[in-house]
Amino acid sequence: MSEPSVDYVHFAERLESAWCIETSSLWSPVNPARGQCGVTSLVAHNLFKGYILKTLLPEGPHFYNFIGGRRYDFTSSQFDHPIDYQDLAADREEAMSDTSPA
Q1: Residue 81 lies in a domain
Q2: A Pfam family name for this chain (predicted)?
C-alpha cells in the first residue's frame, strides 16, 4: 500500500492565514513569516512527522523540517537573503522554546 500524497504546497499557502501576533510576537503584516519558525516546525512535525532541524543564525536558531528525505522550510520567506542551512538536529522542546508564550 502506497503512502497518500501530501500537498505541502497547500499546507504552506494556508500557513500565512494562520500566522498572527498570537503565534509570534515578531509577526507583522509586511513579514508574516517572521518569528514563526518554531511554531510552524512543530505543526509540520505533528502533521507530517519527519525531523525538526535548525540552523544557527545571528538572530538565534531557525527551525524547519526534514520530511521524506527532503528539507522543508515553510518560513524561509521571512528572510531577504538565502540561508546557508546547517541541518543541525533539534527537538520539539527546543522548537517550543522559540514560540510565543500562551
Answers
A1: yes
A2: YunG
Residues 6+ apart with CB under 8 A from 35: 24, 25, 26, 27, 78, 100
Residue 53, domain member (yes or no): yes
- Residues in a beta bridge with 72: 65
Q: Which of 14-23, 44-53, 63-72, 93-102 has the lowest mean pLDDT?
A: 93-102
Q: Give phi and psi for 94, each to the nearest 5.
A: -65, -45
**Which of 6-10, 49-53, 80-84 is least confident?**
6-10
Distance CA(39)–CA(95), nearest Å, equals 7
Whose grid coordinates read 537573503?
Answer: 81
As a whole number of Å, the CA-based R_g of the chain is: 13
Q: What is the domain extent for residue 73?
A: 8-96
In-domain check, residue 45? yes
Based on the structure, what is the number of domains in the chain? 1
Instruction: Judge whether 2 lies within some domain.
Output: no
pTM to 2 decimal places: 0.89
